[in-house]
Amino acid sequence: MVEPPPGWDAAPGDQPPIATPTAAALSAQPSAQPLGQRSDAEGPHAEPPPVSATDIEAAVSEPILPTDVWTSQVARQRQQWLMLGGAAALGVALSFGLVGFLAFRAAHKPTAENPAVPIAPEAPQTDGSHLPAEARAEPIAAQEPASSAVESESQAAPAPPVMDPASARAETPAAEAADEPLAEPVVSPPGQEPDARPSVPPQTAASTQPKKPNLNPGSLSETLQAFAPFIDPDATRPPERMDAAEQDMPALDPQAVTTEQPTVPRPEPRQIDLDARLQDKIAEVEFADVPLKNVLRFMMNFSTIPISIDPDALALVRVTPHTPITLKATDATVDQLLAAALRPLQLAHVAVGRQLVVTRPPLPDGGLRTIAHGVSDLVGSDPDQLAQLAELIVEMVEPASWEAAGGAGVIREELPSLVIQQQETILLRAIVFCERLRAARGLPPQSKFSPDLFSLEPCWARSAQRLAAPVTLNFPQPTAFTRILNRLGDQGGMEILVDWQALVELGWLPETETTLTANQQPFGGVLVAMLQPMDLTYRVVDAAMIQVTSPAAAEARWDIEFYPVPTLPAADETPDAFLARLRAELTGGNPAALSGVLAFDATSRHLIAALPQGQQRKLAEFLRGGG
Asked: CA geometry: angle at 361 spanning 494 and 326, to 5°?
């Protein structure tokens, strides 16, 4: 408020409106001053200048300019009325929305006190001519179980008034019936079976519900019908009809999965100049505790050279694909970087054809390693038993690598030891064979290798839990084959190696792309579904490692397993007759076609089988069935 100047003596009724600063006055002032104060230049006791009537009239006639510190009373009242009006309109809109929501829930979800009446399998009429007039006004959709999303919303919302389901459906506005999500698949609540009752046309479903008289003429449903045009402009539109088959759509299974993959086209053959690619230079690279498999993947992507890992070499030096590597180099070739990364792990990259294999480094002279393995605990001092053991090793452990089959490996019988000259990885497998024979006979191990290698449980049985673990992957678009395998292995807790020597023969390259979509399906089944269209398979290496390879390569690699046979199935059957019967069973009656070797160790009462992994599974099933 602006106080009147001294000397103002006008009568209260003749008092003019309060003077306000004009635009000119505001522009002339250097800065806004609070009302009732003066600037320092005027002094603390300066008298206000007289105000003339002309100034007052001019101030009233000119438009009032709003400022940051002043608003007229009329403007404030107008703002208050607008805010009150907006709040009232919003409240009315929210009220109508809440009322409509409660009515919709009451009309379409039966309560515990008034459960839905089962629909009869057969109805006398379907055209609705026998219904009352109010029921024939709009076709009402058949009651459908609510989806899980709708149920969760209804649990959070306040409980609607208890109403009869039949009367509620008859009183529901057509707009609500049209908006009901009947076209979505029905999802049964947990612990309940999907609704298996026969489908009935919408009119028949309404006619079979007992209609109770409406005891409340001013019910909420009638009110909503009156306001339906204001709530929903499409309220008068009739609901869409659906076939009974659509209404009874089966419930979605949360375990559903799509694992059937289309046949993957093979890429064009690519010739790799191995020597030239090994000399490609990398300006600068640094690995800080990077897993071995990631380092090899980087080198493979950079050089385009397929790089495989020999699982036997990893077991020999006790290294896994997750073993960390730290390396920093500048202006180094691919050959130099691989050598520097693998040397601390006692591994090396060896050229095989136009590819590389990470394995044990060869001896400087290119020869074989020789070791004398004591076996006196297995054969005593009997040279015949020593010869039988040596023969069994040559027949079962990589037969083509021995001198008898044209290979370079040599085994000599020198009591109390077997002197073996062979590649290091094959040497390991020969020693593991002897250690597992000791385990079958209840003898302590004689080597320092990991005891896990001496387990008598088949490798594929030890990995059964991981192979059955559910995994979920979604690669609907073509994606690098190696990337999908890496993600799949991470989800299933398995290391997945790739035998590129076998895959390249079929035309597959590291840059091959494929698709994979799976939802909570067993790891092994998902892997098979991805590999089958590529004509590939996998073999189990140990409890936590598998290898992707070709069927031909998997058939050529024999696993050696020990199966306990305390008593022969037939009392009068000899071990030789038992073995002959097993060969016939595995080959469909043609023992000569068996790819593998079977032997019976009478001392430990164990069947020793050197067979491809697929045949090993078949043999185990046969023995488990009492064969």
From this structure: 60
- Among 462, 514, 469, which Cα is nearest to 491's? 469
Token pair, residue 130, equals 């026998």
Q: Is the pLDDT of residue 539 over 60?
A: yes
Write the pLDDT tens digit of every residue in 592-609.
Answer: 889 999 999 999 999 999
Q: In whole angstroms, give the CA distance from residue 281 to residue 512.
A: 25
Residues 6+ apart with CB under 8 A from 398: 409, 426, 429
Mean of the per-residue pLDDT values of the chain:
74
Residue 20 CB coordination number (10 Å): 17
CA-wise closest residue to 200 among 126, 268, 95 = 126
Would you say how long the chain is, in residues? Answer: 627
| Angle of the 73-108 helix axis to the 220-231 helix axis, nearest 10 | 120
Crossing angle of helices 334-342 and 292-303, in 10° steps, is: 170
- For residue range 472-500, list pLDDT tens digits in order: 999 999 999 999 999 999 999 999 999 99
pTM: 0.59
CA separation, residue 587 to residues 88, 494, 616 (Å): 87, 32, 12
212 with 154: CB under 8 angstroms?
no
Instruction: Work out the number of other CB atoms within 10 angstroms of the CB of residue 296.
Output: 21
Task: Report CA-CA distances (Å) from 560 to 262, 552, 594, 598.
Answer: 35, 18, 15, 10
Tokens of 90: 């919003």
Residue 501 near residue 308, CB atoms below 8 Å: yes
**What letters, b where the CB count within 10 A reaches 16 and e where it falls short, cover 36-59?**
eeeeeeeeeeeeeeeeeeeeeeeb
Nearest Cα residue to 307 out of 510, 483, 146, 543 = 510
Name the helix (H) or strand (E) containing 69.
none
What is the sign of the dihedral through the CA atoms of 291, 294, 298 and 304? Answer: positive
Which residue carries 């009739």 as its tokens?
A: 238
Nearest residue to 344 via CA among 325, 316, 321: 325
Continuous segment of H or E residues that includes residue 392? helix 383-396
Measuring CA to CA, which residue among 184, 111, 116 is closest to residue 147? 184
- What digits encode the pLDDT tens for the residues 447-462? 988 888 999 999 989 9
pLDDT the model gives residue 108: 61
Both tokens assigned to 276? 């030239």
pLDDT-above-70 percentage for the chain: 62
Start-to-end C-alpha separation, the chain: 110
Q: Is the CB of residue 194 less than 8 Å from the CB of residue 186? A: yes
Residues with Cβ within 8 Å of 85's Cβ and at least 6 positions away in sequence, in order, are none
